[in-house]
Sugar ABC transporter substrate-binding protein
Amino acid sequence: MRFSKPSVIVTGLIATIGLSACGGGSDGGSSASATKCTNKIVHADAKQVSVWAWYPNMAKVVDNFNNQHTDVQVCWSNAGQGQAEYDKFQTSISAKKGAPDVVMLEAEQLTGFEIQDALVDLAPLGADKVKGDFSEGAWKDVSQGSAVYAIPVDGGPMAMIYRKDIFKKYDIDPPKTWDEYAAAAQKLKAAGGPAFGDMGSNVPALVTSLMIQKGAQPFQYDLSDKLNIGIKLDDQATKDVLNYWGDLAKKGLIGKEDQFTTDYISGVVSGKYATYVSAAWAPGYLTGQGVGEGDDAGQFGVAELPQWDASSPVSVNWGGSTFAVTTQAKDKAAAAEVAMGLYADDASLEDGWKTQTIFPLNQTVLKSDEFVNAKVKFFDGQTANKDIYVPAENAYSGATYSPFTVYYYAQLQAQMVKLLAGQTTGDQAAADLQKQLVEYAKGQGFTVR
């Protein structure tokens, strides 16, 4: 889930790795003492498990859990969204005290905390009991070999949102490939239409997903060999993707506005962009910003994500959150029960998808007739789940993330700034990224292969 501008602030995360000094749990533990409960405890005599999470409907989700469990209760607090929470969690890791028992983390951030021994392997605590509730790709994103470090909740299978009114006016069909996307963008410009889409510098996760879709494997990493990492950012697939977007920007076929900003949203509302390449959480995000509520109501449709090779389609993901158990948890079994059961009951999942708070990864929802056949209001009644998002999620095969996602995203963002401004080429940006990441990894004590 991603409802605000993604942060790429570099924290002290990797600086603390020192690996030999990375301890597991501390004597202090956390329990509910690390969190001031913002919810009602229903069964006062039950074990309490502290949770940090930022889902907008978290109060309702916690109440659902506490009302359904007599043996364990959730003590919930919102410690901040995304990077704000991660900074606090990192501080508690360094201090070896102050962490919650269960923490909400985006999937791409897990490895950076796993390498610090900050998260508990849930496999011995019953994770396999819920493995069947998720797709292979969703489970891969939270796993390292046979170890499982979090429970998936929501995800971001990618697609292309488009303005039906603009496509109709200029006689454009949803492009099935990126070549068709570029051709449609050129046609739209020649006819005096708006920008075909937008590529901001502040969406490195989006760019990475498109690189992976093209066949890139930016990182190869296995937690069982902590100090060994493969980095490949100067491959042809990465160069091709960066050159593609740099070329569209140079030709004036797309906008270069940073996304998740007021100006960008105003552009979406006013029809400044014909398409929005994004994830399944985008309709909820856009609706929350007032998109589709005024003159633009009923004007949005969604199509499959364009492919680099139509004969070999690849589904990719952007975003998505999980619940992980921290090594500071005193009662890890109780914390694991919460991680596996929180936002997993029917009432919470239904509230999550109907309010567009999450795109659920739980297969009980993804296979339900109500969800699959839902006519999505934002898309003027289109059955977007059945047509686009569920097939994309089920086809997603997972990704491998590095232990330093935050640093990588910061460097990719800096390269995108130069690329979109015409100050570098895709080839050079890829070469510079490779050099920067290899040097950084070696500086942190990794062997780079």
Notes: The chain is about 40% helix and 15% strand.
